[in-house]
Amino acid sequence: MARAISILPEHQLAGLTQRYKNEIGRRRLVTLGCLAVLLVLVVLSASFAEVRPATFFSNLGNFTSYVGRTVPDLHWATLGADIRAWYWNLDGWAKLLGETILIAYLGTLMGGIAAFALCFLASANLVSSPSLRFGARRLLEFCRTVPEIVFALFFVIAFGLGPMAGVLALAIHTAGALGKLFAEVVENADMKPFEGVLSGGASWVQAVRFAIVPQILPGFASYSLLRFEINVRGAGVMGFVGAGGIGQEFLVAIRNFYYTDVSAILLMIIATVVVIDLVTEKIRHRLIGFEAPTR
C-alpha cells in the first residue's frame, strides 16, 4: 500500500535547515579548535624535547651513510662465497639467538604465572576488598612501569653477567603487563556462572576455577603469545647490559664498527621475530576460533 510523504511547510523547513547549518558550523569550529590546541602542544613538546628539524635533515646523510656501510658487497658470480663471508660466525650467532629466544620464553612463562596469580586479586568483580585490590593493582603497576633494562641492570649487579638477569628482568615486567591485561579479561567475564557456583556451596577459589577460568583461558593464551613475541625483541636488548643473548654480540659489532656484522645480526633478529609472529598468529587464531574470510 502506497503512503504519501508529508512535506513540511517552507518556514519550518527553513528553520530546520538553518539549525542544521549552525550545528555543522559549531562542530567545525570545535574541530578546528582541537587541531589548533594539538598543534600548539606539538610545538611546545618539540621545543622542550629539543627536537630540531634542521639538525635532523642536516645529519640525515650520516644515517644513510652508516646504513649503506652495513650492506655487504654481493656479486652474482661469487654470491655463495660472499654470503658465507657475510655470515662468517653463523653458528655462534645462531647459538646466541637461541639463547635470546629461551630468555624470552622463560621470562614470559614466569611472568605469566605471576600475572595469573595476581590478576584475580586485581579484578573488581571478584574481590570486594578495596585494600587488597589496591595493593594488587599497585604491585602490577610497579612491575610494568620500571623498564626491563633497569631491572636487568640491577640483576646483573646482583647475580653477575648472564641470561639469568635477563630472564628475571623480563619476568617482572611481563608480570605487570600481563597482570593488567588478564585482570581486564576477568572483569569482562560473565558473572552468572560464578554466582551460581558460589550459591551451590563452593569456595571462592573453586568458583574461580570452575566458573571464571574456562571463560578466560583463550584470552589469556592470546595475550601470553603476544607478550612472548614482544619479549623476544626485549631479550635482544637485554644483552646490551650483559644479560645474555645476542644483544651483547650486536652491541660489540656496533661499537667496533663491524658494519657487515651489524646487518647480519640485525637481519637474523628480524627474521626470527617475523617467524615467531606468523606462528603465534596462527595459534592465536585457533584459540579464539578466528577463520579467515573466503572469497
Q: What report would you give on this structure?
A:
The protein is an all-alpha fold and 295 residues long. It has a domain at 91-288: Orthogonal Bundle (MetI-like fold), CATH 1.10.3720.10. It is built from twelve helices and no strands. The protein has helices at 10-48, 53-58, 60-70, 79-86, 90-119, 130-145, 148-159, 163-187, 192-199, 204-238, 247-255, 259-288. The longest helix has 39 residues, at 10-48.
Layout of helices and strands, plus pairs?
Elements: H1 10-48, H2 53-58, H3 60-70, H4 79-86, H5 90-119, H6 130-145, H7 148-159, H8 163-187, H9 192-199, H10 204-238, H11 247-255, H12 259-288
Domain ABC transmembrane type-1: 97-280
Subcellular location: Cell membrane
Transmembrane segments: 29-49, 102-128, 149-172, 257-279
Terminal Cα span: 39 Å
User: Total number of helical segments?
Assistant: 12
Helix content: over 70%
Low-pLDDT runs of 5+ residues are: none
Q: What is the CATH level 1 assignment of the domain at 91-288?
A: Mainly Alpha
Could you report the average pLDDT, rounded to the nearest whole number?
Answer: 87
Protein name: Phosphonate ABC transporter, permease protein PhnE
Membrane topology: Multi-pass membrane protein
Keywords: Cell membrane, Membrane, Transmembrane, Transmembrane helix, Transport
Family: Belongs to the binding-protein-dependent transport system permease family.
